[in-house]
Design goal:
Blueprint lengths: L1 H40 L11 E7 L17 H24 L3 E5 L11 H14 L8 E5 L2 H4 L9 H10 L5 E4 L2 E5 L20 E6 L9 H10 L3 E4 L6 E6 L7 E4 L7 E4 L4 E6 L13 E8 L3 E8 L3 H37 L1 H15 L1
Parallel strand pairs: 1-2, 2-3, 5-6, 6-7, 7-11
Antiparallel strand pairs: 1-12, 4-5, 8-9, 8-11, 10-13, 12-13
Membrane topology: Multi-pass membrane protein
Pfam family, one: Metallophos
GO molecular function, one term: hydrolase activity
Length: about 375
């Protein structure tokens, strides 16, 4: 009987171990592989409808974290939070690269979470970390880095300075203009009112002009910003900063938004006409869940020679949902382990009571005697 009981307990312990191992492997498999695979195969393909085209992948507000950030928990928990956030951004980026094989990659600002407050040495170290996470393959023809307020200042009390601007463009080896095929990419800085340093390319027939900005441009009411927009004669605008997926529409003669639309649908491709009288601006959602957004993703635009732009959002799996799944699995494992500890305690108490039942019987009789 003793051996039989021992075998049963041994089998129960083995079963509990297998349950725990199975739960861990299943949760990791779903969260870290199957969810991304299932998401990627459902992304829409966006082929060109009119011959030659330019494929552009947009990454907005990755805000790669640093250990100097006040928003992170204390050591050693910050090692886990920073690693997980950086890994999520990097993994989604390379998945989007694999799916789209773009000609151009554009980072729409806020590349580093604390870039504006870094000294030059820390900025350079974080830049190397950024390049490691967001490695660009050789088939990409050009990579454009647009500065954001977290990179050079411009929001609240964090002022833009000439040194921060020069440092950003120097460290990233950037100019404010880039030409590829029939598209002119022009960076616009709208984060400071006193100086908007933007180069002006000479206009040529048959070329499409795309403005790139961290801050949305068509929402701005400053006359200096409107003037700079109109001087560039853009066909289209892409921006970031707001962490959401939006579409603004304006007249090319006014450069101020009069229509606003949410671009939230999954597996949908929008078509915009850039050659007409309307000026379109698309705000690309953040690609980092640490911005507090449930919905994160990358933007893909196919720009055709006629001026038509095909655009979609490559939505990523919700990391918050995945983290809740991890917590639920952890609770289940702790429950299994807790019951594993309870049974030995119950068995010990049962054996103890059986071994000392005579003493308890005597105590019971004694107490009964005193009550009488």
């Amino acid at each position: 009987m003793i051996m039989t009981g021992f075998n049963v307990c041994s089998r129960l312990r083995i079963m509990k171990k297998w349950i725990i191992v199975t739960v861990v492997m299943l949760v990791v498999l779903v969260n870290e592989w199957l969810s991304y695979t299932f998401t990627a195969v459902r992304w829409p393909s966006v082929p060109s409808t009119q011959g030659d085209s330019v494929r552009v992948l947009f990454a907005a507000d990755p805000q790669i974290l640093s250990f100097q950030s006040d928003s992170e928990p204390a050591f050693p928990l910050n090692l886990v939070t920073i690693w997980d956030a950086d890994r999520f951004v990097s993994r989604g980026f390379h998945l989007a690269l694999w799916w789209t094989r773009p000609d151009i990659v554009v980072f729409l600002g806020d590349l580093l979470n604390d870039g504006s407050i870094f000294n030059d040495s820390d900025f350079n170290s974080s830049l190397h970390h950024f390049r490691h996470l967001m490695h660009i393959p050789n088939y990409v023809k050009h990579t454009i880095f647009v500065p954001g307020d977290n990179d050079i200042g411009g929001e609240g009390l964090d002022q833009v300075t000439e040194h921060k601007v020069r440092r950003f463009f120097s460290f990233f080896n950037q100019t404010t203009t880039q030409q590829y095929k029939f598209v002119d990419f022009i960076q616009m800085r709208a984060m400071d009112d006193y100086d908007i340093a933007t180069s002006t390319l000479p206009r040529k027939d048959g070329r499409i002009r795309v403005l790139l900005s961290h801050m949305p441009l068509l929402l701005k009411t400053k006359s200096t910003i409107k003037k700079k927009i109109l001087e560039q004669h853009p066909s289209f605008i892409f921006s970031g900063h707001d962490h959401g997926s939006f579409h603004f529409k304006a007249s090319k003669t006014e450069a101020h938004a009069h229509e606003f639309h949410l671009l939230r649908e999954e597996h949908h491709v929008w078509e915009f006409e850039g050659a007409g009288a309307q000026l379109h601006e698309v705000s690309v959602p953040t690609c980092s869940y640490r911005m507090g957004k449930q919905d994160t993703g990358y933007g893909l635009a196919v720009i055709e020679g006629s001026g038509k732009v095909l655009y979609t959002v490559l939505w990523l799996p919700s990391r918050f949902t995945q983290l809740w799944i991890y917590l639920t699995a952890l609770g289940l494992i702790l429950t299994i382990l807790l019951f594993g500890f309870i049974n030995p305690i119950k068995n010990f108490l049962f054996q103890y009571l059986r071994a000392h039942h005579h003493a308890f019987t005597f105590l019971k009789v004694t107490l009964k005697y005193h009550r009488v």
